[in-house]
Design goal:
Elements (H helix, E strand, L loop, with lengths): L1 E6 L6 H10 L8 H6 L2 E10 L2 E10 L33 E2 L7 E3 L20 H9 L5 H22 L14 H17 L3 E4 L2 E2 L4 E4 L2 E4 L3 H9 L4 E2 L10 H10 L1 E2 L6 E10 L2 E3 L5 E9 L4 E4 L1 E7 L4 H12 L5 E8 L5 E9 L4 H12 L5 E2 L4 E4 L1 E11 L2 E11 L5 E6 L1 H11 L3 H13 L1
Parallel strand pairs: 1-6, 6-11, 7-10
Antiparallel strand pairs: 1-14, 2-3, 4-8, 5-13, 8-9, 12-14, 15-20, 16-18, 16-19, 17-18, 21-22, 22-23
Helix pairs in contact: 1-5, 3-4, 4-5, 4-6, 4-7, 6-7, 8-9, 10-11
GO molecular function, one term: nickel cation binding
Organism: Haloarcula terrestris
Family: Belongs to the LarC family.
Amino acid sequence: MRTLAFDGRMGAAGDMLLGALLAAGADRDALSPVEDELPIEYAVSEVDRCGIAAARVEVLLTDADSDGNGFHDHAHDDGHSHEHTHDEHSHSHSHTHDGDDNDHTRDHDGDDHDHTHAEGHGPSRTYAEVVDLVEEMGLPKTVKADALAMFEILGEAEASVHGTDLDGTHFHEVGADDAIADIVGACLLLDDLDVDRVVTTPLSTGGGTVEMSHGTYPVPTPAVVEIAERADWSLQGGPIDRELVTPTGAAIFAHIAEGTESLPPLKVDTSGYGAGGWNLDDRPNVLRALVGDGAGRLRRDEITVLETNVDDVSPEVLGDLQRTLADVGARDVSIVPTTMKKSRPGHIVKVICKPEDAERIARRLAEATGTLGVRESGAGHRWVADREYETVALSVDGEQFEVTVKVASDTDGTVFDVSAEYDDAAAVADQTGLSVREIQQRAERMVRE
């Protein structure tokens, strides 16, 4: 399985992600659709970050005087009301950083400022206006779907923070053309790399505070926290008091990446580094990307586990729980004999379900058994095989019989279990006089061969 792995120890911002993808082998020409539709260009250069050669991507205006897209000439300095982490504009709030300490400098990498950076330029847009713009860009179907999903993540986070709904969300800087260039550009480069899986180690948020239009907020910012709640990966503080994870970067990673505590086993084919805007004295301000072949895996499935203890429920009711709880969303039901208080025999009923189904299933469990309480355990996910069903035709004494066979495999397609469905095998056994075991073995053998 072709895997793209990110090392998140210096956070994630849109410009760093673009640089990392290009350095890891994505084609610069893949960005052309954005440059064709917006008055921007991607300026790509190689810079040094503490001895690491990294790709630096800056989004520049191609027509600073154009007002058709809301552009206007605009000078930059470190006290600008919408300066941002890693030199990539990210917030839907204006904010300033804590000021320049001696531990880092803003590095424009030789830019003579003849070109205007696109940070925050262009109109601020509503969520609906951003969707319309992306829809009209003529992007490949999968690229468009990914970009829209990322903007939906951003919009839902902003709506949650501000107590509004998605349609009423108004993007400020993240609706400007440079942020659109970051998100759509990342989708185009990911499509060009053509990987099967994306993972990231924990993303370092940095620390300290940022000044935003609503006041002073701790890092990570509210939007980043909202996005992280919906993401598979985890956050960690440090290693410096700066904002290292931006909402734009978080939204991209929330859509594309699974979390992992450390880099997975990987036969590395290519690797590269994307540079952030700060040139730090003691550590490289880069996002590292590695591309290569990784081992197949089981699929991670978000679940919760409900449990209750009962000692006065009839066997008939217990036996029917498999059906009644499955009707309201249970994925699996187990009933385990146990000994309860005063040495009374009883049972523990365990139910695996999706978190969103838990309340409904708990009520049905209480109604069916009369239990006075249902507890939810701390399980957050399970690892499951991909399952496919094949129908085989068995020939017995010249007559054809169909049997369904379940095939379990990892994400690489490596099969590790083949199991004929009992009900089908039992029906064929009744008609042919053969044993259920014989029917199952024949059907499974046909699939394996």
